Amino acid sequence: MTKKMKLSQLSDMLQDLDVESLEGVTIEGDIELNITGGGGLNPALAYALGSEISQISLHMANIGRMLGFPAEQLFASAFGMGEMPQPQALPTSPKIQELLASKFEVSKVDNWKNPIQEVTLGATSGDGGSRKNTVTIGGENALPYYFDAEMPHRNYVTMDVFDMPIGMAKSVKGNYEDVINDPAEWAKKVVREFNADMVTIHLISTDPLINDTSAKEAAKVVEDVLQAVDVPIVIGGSGNPEKDPEVLEKAAEVAEGERVLLASASLNLDYARIAKAAMDYGHVVLSWTQLEINAQKELNRKLMKQCNVPRDRIIMDPTTAALGYGLDYAYTNMERIRLAGLMGDDELTFPMSSGTTNAWGAREAWMVSSPLKQDSDWGPREYRGPIWEIVTGLALSLAGNDMFMMMHPTSVQVLKEITQTLYGSIESEEIDITNWIGAEV
Amino acid sequence: MKINSPLEAYKFLPATNCGECGEPTCMAFAAHLIDRSHKLTDCTPILEPKFKKKYEELDALLAPEIREIVIGVGEKVAKIGGDDVLYRHKLTFFNQTQYAYDVWDTMDEKDLVERVNYIQDFKKFYVGNFLTVDMVAIRCTSNDPKKFGAAVKKVVETTDLPLILCSFNPEVLKAGLEASKDRNPLLYAANKDNWKEVAELALEYDVPVTLFAPNDLDLLKSMAKTFAAMGTEKLVLDPGTFPTGKQLKQTFTNFVKVRRAGIDGDRDIAYPIMAVPFTAWMAHDDPVSASYWETVVASVFTIKYGDIMILHSTEPYAMLPELHIRDTIYTDPRKPVTVDPAMYKVGEPTADSPVLVTTNFALTYYTVESDLASNKIDCFLWAIDTDGIGVEAAVAGGQLTAAKIKKGIEESGFDLKKDTTHNTIILPGLCARLQGDMEDESGANVMVGPADSGRLPGWLEKNWPPQKK
Ligand code: B12
Ligand code: SF4
């Protein structure tokens, strides 16, 4: 009858056999046991012993492995065989009954030392203007909405008004058909109905290639708009570099004292004339460059040094490209400008403005459906357009943009909602999300 | 990564300049390790046993600050995390945010299959590729393990997309795991009540797991530490996405804080972050407002550090901007996306077909190409090497000149005189001013097309073939 043996008996047994250490024990090939000095061991017993010893050595090896020793290599070389089959790892995950205590900590950014310049638009009667309120942007000490420092002013939206009917995406146009021939009424509508903080009057008909409206006539439109609304305004030219200085000069003159934003000074026109008009009649200059941080520095520098524009009269427009059409450049350009400003580059510490309306240039915003058959259905453009404008603006708001020039009423409403939420001024009912998975939607 | 100069990486390389990695020198290769455009394993010599120690040391130094987590298996496998910077211009962001759209286990089976198919088939062409969405999140709304298991099984049968199994009930999660165990799904979620059981499931099935600690970063970090001690670092962090008001502002703060801590070197919290814009649906009843708000929240957290998110609206007006904002943020800012400069055929052009010039900026090229192809216009389209700059900017910046176009033509091996019957090329409207120079340089007839290639079909109808002079 074979004798069964327990592990615990092993050492006793080795002792019985007068073995002091395992030095004399060699294990070879097919588990054969030779114990020197021992006389005639019963083969069954020897087998059982061998098996147990091997088991032990395996366990020992496992412990060795856990201690970081490559036991399997030892086995491999000792037995002259290749990779040993990996012994079953012991369950290593310790049972933990309580969460390990931990405190979350993170530091504030320590190299944002330079505040962004504050710039005020609009002047009330006390300051020689006729606006009911003013708008102040800038003053940040951190990236927008960051916990490092409170953001002093919320974002503002100025809505576009044109001095002539222009081509617009269908879903934009629907909102302005009744006022499209009357800039003053148009301005009233965006303030009263669409909650615009400001109005931009674009004098595009002055372009010699469009209507070549004279600067004098264009200035009348500016007067009408100033009459029609009492919010601060932005005055835009046509973008024609030859004509714009003259047009903006005249407009600045009729708006004297209102602290409007003149759009724009750029490197490809006579920026000095525009700067001078702003100085002479008490306005702010929009310093516009095209997606190039060094060009932006250059123009700002020229405005400050060469044209003596004080720091609180400069806002930058580093150019907005639409979602899907270069927003990656526009976003990063703005983010770099803002970070450089915060870190002390005082050629870049100015608040920023975005021509968010550019988003409507993207096909996705205005086309009825995809021109490509392989595309999934694009769905109704009435909903696509506004969200294109919103996401374009929202991305730039996170990059540091302060002021948005926009067109669609829904876009304005939603963009204001999200930027003011992140700014921290929107109260709403608290929502318990603990069990959101089961929510019925 | 713990080092930031090529020199530091170079010290660990074999220094033989053998060229196996495709770079002429070890130093050049080191530079690519630092900008993460090559993998260490591209250097085959360092994989030899004698370099084992150096390999391991360098590998650890090069590991990204935020751990990279893998979800799913096979071709559709998704990677998240792996970032090293807080601002994309400092390097680039890696592993774009993964968008998971939800289904739920109380859905009708037919609707469920239809929705999963819609999600996996959704696509939009953009610069040479299709933008698509990534995952299916299965929510347990029944709290019934059987029902959930069945729903997961159905989804597994319908799609190869990676899955997120959503329930706070460990039994439900287990049933889901049983139905999808070969698919390496992401578990959602362990919270302060169920973490022990969920940790066990994650370990037993060896799957990644989300830790959910709404607006409690201490708890979130405790859980992450605990799970790591228990043996898994395949973790995703959900600090809670509150959909509105001050709570949403707090959520924004939490995301910024967690990522900043991770990049700053707090290993205990250096994991990918999950956002759940889905919660917008708990704040809005009307589906258009809910979809809009969800898209807005998704955009915020695609830009600010969300690595994976669960969404509900499958309206194209939600999905299209989501796909594009993600592409915007994750495009490598170090190089414009380009196509190889060459002469391309659109359709099946013959010697009578028009020859059009454009740039090798991918956005320009594919816009023009798709305008032509989708209108079935057979023609030759010449992508001139403008260093990947679009037409207008390239004209302004001097990358698109008459000489450049002529050179491009010559290098492509296309011979206007021999290969066409008309010896005519058509320029983009936005480079009209190159027309004269171009005529002089090439001796060909030069026509100026419309400013927007979308108007090419109409323009060609009127102007092609060109009138004999
Ligand atoms: C993104 C952008 C950039 C990016 C360029 C990225 C890139 N990889 O191309 C960056 C930041 C690098 C850039 C730099 C500059 N830019 Co830039 N930029 C833009 C922006 C915002 C969008 C351009 C774009 O990508 N459009 C989309 C693509 C698809 O358009 P596209 O290539 O022109 O193709 C269309 C058409 O040309 C036409 N088309 C194309 N091929 C063909 C072929 C045929 C046969 C036909 C018929 C039609 C056709 O159809 C296409 C689809 O509509 C525009 C402003 C704007 N909103 O338009 C300014 C703009 C183009 N830039 C401008 C300038 C001045 C510059 C700089 C010189 C600025 C500077 N001072 O440094 C530099 C030059 C850089 C260089 N060349 O090295 C000016 C150009 C002004 C002008 N007319 O001369 C613009 C118009 C801004 C402005 N309003 O002033 N820019
Ligand atoms: S393969 Fe490795 S050893 Fe050879 S050149 Fe490249 S980095 Fe150097």
Characterize the structure shown.
The complex is a heterodimer of chains A (441) and B (469). Chain A folds into two domains: 85 residues, no CATH class; 306 residues, TIM Barrel (Alpha-Beta Barrel), CATH 3.20.20.20. Helix content of chain A is 37%, strand content 11%. In chain A, strands 10-9-8-7-6-5-12-11 form an eight-stranded parallel sheet. In chain A, helix 5 packs parallel to helix 6, helix 6 packs across helix 7 and helix 7 packs parallel to helix 8. The relative contact order of chain A is 0.10. About 8% of the residues of chain A have low confidence. Chain B has 469 residues and is α/β, with parallel strands linked by helices. In chain B, the strands form five sheets. In chain B, strands 10-9-8-7-6-3-12-11 form an eight-stranded parallel sheet. Chain B has a three-stranded mixed sheet with strand order 13-15-14, with helices on both faces. Chain B has a two-stranded antiparallel sheet with strand order 1-2. In chain B, helix 12 links the parallel strand 14 and strand 15. Chain B is globular and about 80 Å long. The chains are: A alpha/beta (441), B alpha/beta (469). At the A-B interface, helix 10, helix 12 and helix 13 of A face strand 4, helix 7, helix 8, helix 9 and helix 10 of B.
- Specify the CATH class of the largest domain in chain B: Alpha Beta
Describe the oligomeric state of these chains in a short phrase.
heterodimer
Rg calculated over all Cα atoms of chain B: 27 Å
In spatial order, strands of the major sheet of chain A run 10-9-8-7-6-5-12-11
Return the CATH architecture of the largest domain in chain B.
Alpha-Beta Barrel
The helix count of chain B comes to 17
Task: Kindly report the average pLDDT value of chain A.
Answer: 87
Biggest interface, CB < 8 A: A-B, 71 and 94 residues
Small-molecule components bound: cobalamin, iron/sulfur cluster
Straight-line distance between termini of chain B? 65 Å
| H-E order of chain A | HEEHHEEEHHEHEHEHEHEHEHHEH
CATH homologous group name of the largest domain in chain A: Dihydropteroate synthase-like
Report the biggest beta sheet of chain A as strand number plus sense, adding barrel if it closes.
Answer: 8 strands, parallel
Spans where pLDDT lies below 50 across 5 or more residues of chain A: 18-40, 80-91
Low-confidence stretches of chain B: none
In CATH, the topology of the largest domain in chain B is named TIM Barrel
CATH architecture of the largest domain in chain A: Alpha-Beta Barrel
Question: How many strand segments of chain A?
Answer: 12
Helix vs. strand class of chain A: alpha/beta
